[in-house]
Write a structure and sequence with these properties.
alpha/beta; 22 helices; Dimethylsulfoxide Reductase, domain 2; Rossmann fold; molybdopterin cofactor binding; binds iron/sulfur cluster; 7-stranded mixed β-sheet; N-terminal domain of TfIIb; single chain; iron; about 30% helix; about 700 residues
């Protein structure tokens, strides 16, 4: 029991969990943080918060925190604690030695959506200017990379279209592949408020999520589609809208291009709800009714999550939703739009900051000579004109021997990436694995160098939330590690011969603003003055952009894209007759590295497997049984929970605990455009008891 007492000071900062990006006042008594109070002036949360942001900050001072750099020659050796100077010199020397032996492209880095924009920016700059290649990727690869691709192709900008406030003007809300109540609780409350006021709701999700039926909220239509059939579903809805003349022709004529080809495609009989019914498993009449409801709404707003992106056609589905919005004129004003609900606090920011191997900050392609020249002049360094390796390419290249050194900033790739045995084999084959993190996580177990990172309470910088809102993250305490995280890549780069230094993170943002048109008007001083800024913010006078594409799309005309449905190769068979899909629970966060180290662990102590009573009965499984889940790639154990939230034939689990390891069974399948893993569809067998 801690005697809290009254706070003596408070610091305004931003929650480090989900992409809602709630603002808080961290209240301290002396140097001790005693509570987090949601900030009524917070643009994203207006005084609200969820249990994670409010209570789950204890991990920052947990005894498992590693505060010293450590090195070891082999992963079977014991860790040796060293000082920062030694660790930085070791990493620089080893990375250069690998390049001397295997070539410039033999090393790379992965940035984190958990760190600040400034910290991400310095890592990608280190890779491009000091490593001399574009082998930089982000953990957004495994969540929202299809959002970046799909929205850029159709609208011209890799970001959601609306601010959160906009939902208050929606007449019909469509939630696809997301569970906001658990994943984005504060935004879910905003959404539910609008639903209680009378807005209609369509839920497209295999699972009967809380929004389908909960106190005071009930969906007008729940379309429980088969995992992997999203694109067939969105094409069927488009078929209804086009063939029944429900399109907004004036909007299409004035604002869009390539409509005719798309309309001819979706109008074909094979795209109809009736043709899609055997694929989606959803009655055609329900799909027709839901499509009419969306198209006839004054304002129709789409919100979506990883149930859209983490598929072999994730990018196609993002474009499919953009097509629906354009066809019905639901873009460019309050209450409409296409909006990704981002999982991590800084997914948007890590993508904005140039973490993709083909894009410099601001989503500019590395092959663009004019763009590269701007960066080269300011950085005083050449930039490679060809895209580098994505995360899955890094794993494959490690196994073929051409990729030998990896720097990982704040992501537990050994636990979070699919097909665990493949990831482990790849990481084990590296000559140098550097992990920068708070804890000795699963990835660090395979590392040669551990560089201690800082928690959000020690950071000074910015996060960008799902509505493109740049929020300040202010230090509540000094770095317990003795070093700011943005300093680490700067010092490694310098030790490798590329002089990279800043006195303060505000200088990093100033550099981002100079180099990135959508950030030209952003500075720490302005953020402190305005509270937050939603990019694009193009000059000092610009207060930011809550709603995008109001008069014209970023790319000029919105572009309709033909979205042909291609079934995933991951099918159920007699040997693997069930389809496993995944999601989250409210009290835990992603792989649980933080939330498992807070009192929240008492509320949910393990991942479980939800299985329909019919499927359970067929297998002799009763509630609470330990069951073995077997897929083509692996096998894991979970406790069964009988539930009819999933249709028969589909099972469901969360991925918050390393021992259960949902990714032991997930496959190598990935989105055709971005390699985002197909976490949401894995054919499995479930049997009672522990095997092997
Ligand atoms: Fe933090 Fe998300 Fe909860 Fe807000 S909704 S307090 S950002 S976890």
């Amino acid at each position: 029991v801690v005697e809290l007492g009254m706070p003596t000071r408070s610091v305004k900062t931003t929650c480090a969990y989900c992409g809602v990006g709630c603002s808080f006042k961290a209240e301290l008594r002396g140097d001790q943080l005693i509570r987090m109070v949601p900030d009524e002036d917070g643009g994203a949360n207006e005084g609200h918060a969820c249990v994670k942001g409010r209570f789950a900050f204890g991990y920052a001072t947990h005894k498992d925190r590693q505060l010293n750099p450590m090195i070891r020659e082999s992963i079977t050796d014991d860790w040796q604690v060293v000082d920062w100077e030694t660790a930085i010199a070791y990493v620089a020397r080893k990375m250069r030695a690998i390049q001397d032996k295997y070539g410039v492209g033999a090393i790379g880095g992965i940035t984190s959506s958990r760190t600040t924009n400034e910290e991400v920016y310095t890592v990608q700059k280190m890779v491009r200017a000091a490593f001399g290649n574009n082998n930089v990727d982000t953990c957004a690869r495994v969540c929202h990379s299809p959002t970046g691709y799909g929205l850029k192709q159709t609208f011209g900008e890799s970001a959601g279209t609306q601010d959160f406030r906009s939902v208050a003007k929606a007449d019909v809300i469509v939630v696809i592949g997301a569970n906001p109540t658990d994943g984005h609780p504060v935004f879910a409350s905003r959404m539910k408020r609008r639903l209680r006021e009378g807005a209609n709701l369509i839920v497209i999700d295999p699972r009967r999520i809380d929004l389908v039926r909960s106190p005071h909220v009930e969906a007008d239509y729940h379309l429980p589609l088969a995992p992997g059939s999203n694109v067939a579903m969105v094409n069927a809805m488009a078929h209804v809208i086009v063939t029944e003349g429900l399109v907004d022709q004036e909007f299409i004529d004035n604002r869009c291009e390539e409509y005719d080809e798309w309309a001819a495609f979706v109008a074909r009989p094979e795209q109809s709800p009736e043709a899609a019914e055997p694929i989606t498993g959803v009655p055609a009449a329900d799909v027709r009714a839901a499509a009419r409801l969306y198209a006839n709404a004054g304002n129709g707003a789409i919100y979506y999550g990883l149930g859209v992106t983490e598929h072999s056609q994730g990018s196609t589905m993002v474009m499919g939703m953009a097509n629906l919005a354009m066809a019905t004129g639901n873009i460019g004003r309050d209450g409409v739009g296409v909006n990704p609900l981002r999982g991590q606090n800084n997914v948007q920011g890590s993508c904005d900051m140039g973490s993709f191997p083909h894009e410099l900050p601001g989503y500019r392609h590395v092959s663009d000579d004019a763009v590269r020249e701007v960066f080269e002049n300011l950085w005083r360094s050449p930039i490679a004109p060809t895209p580098g390796l994505r995360i899955p390419n890094m794993f494959d290249s490690a196994l073929d021997g051409s990729f030998r050194g990896l720097y990982v900033q704040g992501e537990d790739i050994a636990q979070s990436d699919p097909n665990t045995s493949h990831v482990y084999a790849s990481l084990k084959s590296l000559d140098l694995l550097v992990v920068q993190d708070l804890f000795l996580n699963e990835t660090a177990a395979l590392a040669h160098v551990f560089l201690p990172g800082t928690s959000f309470l020690e950071k000074d910088g910015t996060f960008t939330n799902a509505e493109r809102r740049i929020n300040r993250v202010r230090p509540v305490m000094a770095p317990a590690t003795g070093k700011h995280e943005w300093q680490i890549p700067c010092e490694i780069a310098t030790a490798m011969g590329y002089d990279m230094s800043y006195d303060d993170p505000s200088q990093i943002m100033d550099e981002i603003a100079v180099l990135t048109p959508t950030f030209h008007g952003v500075s720490f001083e302005k953020l402190d003055r305005l509270g937050s800024i939603q990019w694009p913010c193009v000059d000092e006078a610009d207060p930011g952009t809550p709603i995008m594409h109001t008069d014209e799309f970023t790319r000029g005309k919105g572009r309709f894209m033909v979205t042909t449905f291609v079934p995933t190769t991951e099918r159920s068979t007699r040997k693997y007759p069930l389809i496993l899909t995944t999601g989250r629970i409210l009290s835990q966060y992603n792989v649980g590295a933080q939330t498992r180290r807070t009192p929240n662990v008492m509320w949910h102590a393990e991942d479980t497997l939800e299985i329909h009573p019919h499927d359970a009965e067929d297998r002799g499984i009763v509630d609470g049984d330990e069951v073995t889940i077997t897929s083509r790639t692996g096998e894991t154990l979970l406790r069964a929970v009988l539930s009819d939230r999933m249709p028969a034939g589909v099972v469901y689990t969360t991925f918050h605990y390393p021992l259960s390891g949902a990714n032991v069974v997930t496959t190598d399948n990935s989105d055709w455009a971005t390699n985002c893993p197909e976490y949401k569809v894995t054919a499995v067998q479930v049997s009672v008891g522990a095997h092997g």
